[in-house]
Amino acid sequence: MTQQQLIADTDPHRLARTISGFNLIGGELTPARSGRTFPVVNPANGREIGQAAHSDAGDVEQAVAAAARAQPAWAAMAARKRGTLVAECARLLAGHVEELGRLVALETGKALRTESRVEASVVADALQFYGGLGSELKGETVPFDPGMLTFTQREPIGVVGVIIPWNAPMMLMALKIAPALVAGNTVVVKSAEEAPLAVLRVCQILNQKLPPGVLNIVSGDGPVCGAPLVAHPQVGKVTFTGSVETGRIVARTAGEKLIPVTLELGGKSPMIVMDDADLPRAVTGAVSGMRFTRQGQSCTAASRILVHEKVHDAFVAQLKARVDAMKMGDPLDEATDIGTIISRAQLDKVLGYIESGRAEAGATAHECAQLPSGDALREGLFVRPVIFTGLGNGSRLAREEIFGPVTCVIRFSSYEEAIAMANDSDYGLAATIWTRDLKTALDATRRLHAGFVQVNQNIVVQPGLSYGGVKQSGLGREASLEAMLDHFTHKKTVLLNMS
Ligand code: NAI
Ligand code: MG
To answer: Is a pLDDT exceeding 50 seen at residue 115?
Structure first.
């Protein structure tokens, strides 16, 4: 509200420099109090594109204080009015899709056409969806006693801490901040070290509409900046997406404080292909489900593809041909399907898994597509997609989240065996089954241990559909009306004695 109308800047290098080195606290772009920053690197060429504020507990303190100051007035606003403001934010963002797509492509290495621009438009969609739900923050009347008027009402929790990863930073942030804000909470976001700029820009755009302090964002290191946010006594709820390991740390601190947490953690999502499946369609589903266009860096990635032995070889041949046809290259090039891995550390992790898979007896690593050529991308963190065959469900590669362009195709001979393997995992985020048989499909939807189950398709999280995991994949649900009601409000019961 305090700023001039921001003009979209589709030169991501210039934009990255413009917003370098800042947090956004109380409606103002402000550097870390220490003045320290850390570099943000383009993973396609290893070059620095800008700097991010290196925030610590002191900066978190300022941000939480700003959010706490803004919260009572925000909560006192009519719920529909808050929703209207959030929907207006969505309309503002619609004018920045190209800019945000380019900026997130530059800092994450995700291809603009297949991933980054799509992510930017989903952000606006998520805000639009929640913007319409203000009037759904309803309570109930309870027929407790004829002499008492008994009812419930939904109240905001207060200040919500939002911790996000780098793989789809804007989208994952939007799915958290939109319901939190519409429900009457104020927010402090802690961005991921690897991707702090596009989300900062989103918050800057939204701050043109939102009152100062309602939405704040700080960048910094997990333990130095994320941990104090979770631990802060005025933060009444934390919603986190990231690794299981960090999710546990967050949950432990929240447990000490006895505050609610939502955790979206990893996955090892099975895709069961029966022998009666429409094979070309299943192959298309494997390509999109495995998120090859995002280098497999997705918690939902279909990274265990269980295929009936009768169609196994045909499936693998078709899948390999499809992935071979994908073009790896400069993320900002419209022709590119597949960009880069986010960071050197993730690259090393992914390559380690590929090496370990190759060393297993009976395993074959089918490398797909071609690395880009040319000097400009020589330092780029490119990894050719790999389809493993010949591994069992007990393999490390089938049990652990790789978060790279690596999938395991595992053979089965009976439906029962497939279900048993699908469920034999520490994770339970998503699952799909591909079959033309209705009875098999329905049976599988009942028996698969996962929070999100699809038959003959593999679409991504959508506003309106509850999304989240069972087992080690997390706690709570996101993206839906229920997610807002259950995870961003307290329910108060009120009894009015009229006798
Ligand atoms: P991470 O879980 O460590 O990082 C996610 C966020 O948590 C970042 O903003 C980070 O700064 C923050 N964080 C780290 N330590 C923290 C702490 N002690 N307290 C509060 N916040 C903290 O994930 P990372 O290191 O980026 O990736 C490691 C692995 O995690 C990946 O290889 C992948 O397997 C998994 N992952 C899963 C994601 C998902 O969508 N479920 C997203 C990103 C990573
Ligand atoms: Mg980490």
So the answer is: yes
Tell me the best of 55, 56, 108, 163 to mutate to test the pocket of ligand 1, counting ligand atoms within 8 Å of each CB and taking the most.
163
pTM for the whole structure: 0.98
- pLDDT band of 436, cuts 50, 70, 90: very high
Distances from the Cα of 254 to the Cαs of 223, 249, 263, in angstroms?
15, 9, 11
Query: How far apart are the CA of 206 and the centre of ligand 2, in A?
Result: 28
| pLDDT of res. 98 | 98
Write down the architecture of domain 270-463 according to CATH.
3-Layer(aba) Sandwich (3.40)
Report residues whose beta carbon is within 6 angstroms of any ligand 1 atom: 163-167, 190, 192-193, 222-223, 226-227, 230, 241-243, 246, 249-250, 264-266, 299, 346, 349, 401, 403
The DSSP string of 162-224 is EE--SSSHHHHHHHHHHHHHHTT-EEEEE--TT--HHHHHHHHHHTTTSPTTSEEEE---III
C-alpha 167 to ligand 1 mean position (Å): 10
Give residue 165 CA to ligand 1 midpoint distance, Å. 6
The mean of the pLDDT values for the chain is 97
The residue with tokens 């090496």 is 355
Catalytic residues: 264, 299
CATH code, 12-265+473-494: 3.40.605.10
Please state the domain extents for the chain: 12-265+473-494, 270-463
Query: How confident is residue 4, by pLDDT bands cut at 50, 70 and 90?
Result: low
Q: What is the pLDDT of residue 5?
A: 87
Euclidean distance between CA atoms 463 and 459, whole angstroms? 12
CB-based contacts of 457, cutoff 8 Å, min separation 6: 285, 432
Asked if 488 and 160 touch (Cβ cutoff 8 Å), the reply is: yes
Closest among 8, 49, 339 to 202, alpha carbons compared: 8
